[in-house]
Amino acid sequence: MWPEGDHTQELLNNAKEGDDYAAGQLLDRHRDALRRMVEMRLDRRIQQRVDASDIVQEVMIEANRRLRKYLDDPVMPFHLWLRQMAKDRIIDAHRRHRASGKRSVDREQGMVAPAAMDRSTIELAAQLCDPELTPAAAATMQELQRRFQAAIETMDDHDREIVLMRHFEQLSNQDVAQSLKLSEPAASMRYLRAMRRLRKLLSEPSDEGDFA
After folding, report:
1. 98, 94, 79: which is closest to 36 by C-alpha?
2. For residue 5, how many C-alpha atoms fall within 13 Å in the half-sphere facing its CB?
C-alpha cells in the first residue's frame, strides 16, 4: 500500500539538500496511501461528519511544517512518521465526535456502506473460513464479505490494529514492531494470535445463516 522505499529515499535525500520540489513530491506520493489508512480506522459513523481527505490534508500541512526537523533527525521511516501523525488526528476526531452530548455520533442512527474489500482481502477471508475454497468462488460470495467485515469490526482493538497494519497496509513485521514499540518477535506473535482469533470469529455460526 505504501510507496516503495527506494524512490522515497531519493526524494528524502533531495529534500534534505533543499530541493522544495522533491519535498512536495515526497508528500504527494504518500497522500493516497495515507487516505486509505485513515479510512480504515475512522469510525464509519464519524465519516458521516468528517471526511478522510480533510484529515489527510491536515496531516500534509503538519508534515510540511515539521519536515525540516524530521529530515535532520529521521527517528523512524517516513511512512511511519506520516501515519503516526494521522493516527493522532484520528484519535482527536473520535474524541470530539464520540463525546457525550446531543450531537454525539453514538446517538445518531443511519445506514452506512461497509468498507470496500479488494480481491486480496476476499482471498484471505476465504483461506481463514475454508482453505479449500478457491479465490474465484470466494470472490462471488457476498456473505463471506459481510462476515469478514463483521469479524474485523468485533475484534479487540489491538488485534484489529495489527491485522490492518500487516494485511491491509502491507507493513512489514519490522515496521509494525517499530510503530507499536514492540520487539520483532513480540509483534510477530501478536499478529499470529490475532489471526487465530480472526479465524475463530469467522468459524462461528452466522446469525443470518452459515454458508458451505
Report:
1. 79
2. 8
Instruction: Name, in order, each residue with C-beta under 8 angstroms of 149's C-beta and a sequence gap of 6 or more.
Output: 114, 115, 117
Domain count, the chain: 2
Name the amino acid, one letter, at 59: V
Task: Tell me if 208 is assigned to some domain.
Answer: no
Per-residue pLDDT tens digits for 177-201: 999 999 999 999 999 999 999 988 8
Cβ atoms of residues 177 and 186 within 8 Å: yes
Q: What are 212's three cell numbers? A: 458451505
| CATH number of the domain bearing residue 159 | 1.20.140.160
Q: How far is CA 93 from CA 38, 89, 102, 180, in A?
A: 11, 6, 17, 21
Same domain, 102 and 138: no
Residue type, 105: V
β strands within the chain, DSSP E: none
Angle between helices 20-28 and 5-16 (to 10 degrees): 150
User: Which residue carries 479465524 as its cell?
Assistant: 199
Mean pLDDT, residues 46-63: 90
User: Which of these, 204, 39, 209, 36, lies nearest to 128 by C-alpha position?
Assistant: 204
Distance CA 177, CA 196 (A): 19
